[in-house]
Design goal:
Elements lengths: L6 E12 L6 E5 L2 E16 L5 E17 L4 H8 L4 E2 L6 E10 L5 E3 L4 E2 L8 E5 L5 E7 L7 E5 L4 E3 L7 E10 L3 E2 L10 E12 L6 E13 L14 E7 L12 E5 L2
Parallel strand pairs: 10-11
Antiparallel strand pairs: 1-2, 1-15, 3-4, 4-17, 5-14, 6-13, 7-12, 8-13, 9-10, 9-13, 11-12, 15-16, 16-17, 16-18
Length: about 260
Amino acid sequence: MFNPNELILERIRSVEEYDPATSELTGRYTQIESPSLKTSAEAQDVTDAMGSSVATFYKAQKGTFDFSNSYFSLDLAASQYGTKKVLASDGNKILMPVSETITIGSDHTAVLKYTPVGPDGAEVKYVKVINENNTFGDTYEVSATAGDGKFVIDAAAKTITLPDNVTGRVFVNYERETTTAAQVTKRTDKTPKVKTLLIHAIFHDICNPNTVYAGVIRCPRAQIDPSSTEVSLSPDGKHAASYILQKGYCDEEGTLFDIIISED
């Protein structure tokens, strides 16, 4: 009979999120660092008339599972924000902001890299001239005709026409449509959904490290803690997540998690 006790835990190889109602996979993270599984409970002391402790009962038991993913994960961000990752397509184009610095041509035009979208004839509302010392100069506003402080846009031709006396470079901001993008939105009316977690681990026998065991920590009811979510925006930063583990309210057994290790 397989009866493991002390084992070497090599690493957590992946964390998977599932919809508890449908069992659909909603997220998978494979670059796991600093994983930690903790449990806690509220203590309630019973004392006598002299204040001496007679017994201590524990209630409201819950757990936490914390880890950092080595890479920024759009799926994990979507789970943290209680939303879904939206993928662009021909039938579901995503609007993407664009900022460009463009050299004005000899014909007094600035050619955009992408086709701008927006109100007809005003797809770009303002442009700013960039001075020789790299500071911003005059601001020009879109108009039906180019003139003093005005420019004209031809969105289909991706062209902005400026007054004849404007030279150098201009800074332009606009939106374009894309069919090859992904978008995750954080909204204040959304919170993380309850998920089922499968935490896959690799164990080794302490007497024979060449003997490898597969392990899974199963958390039936896990919800990302939204009280403090930080996503590092530096290349060496990690994408951290913290899950609160609670028993299902209608679960008579009150399972927080199972640790399962298999010989085969």
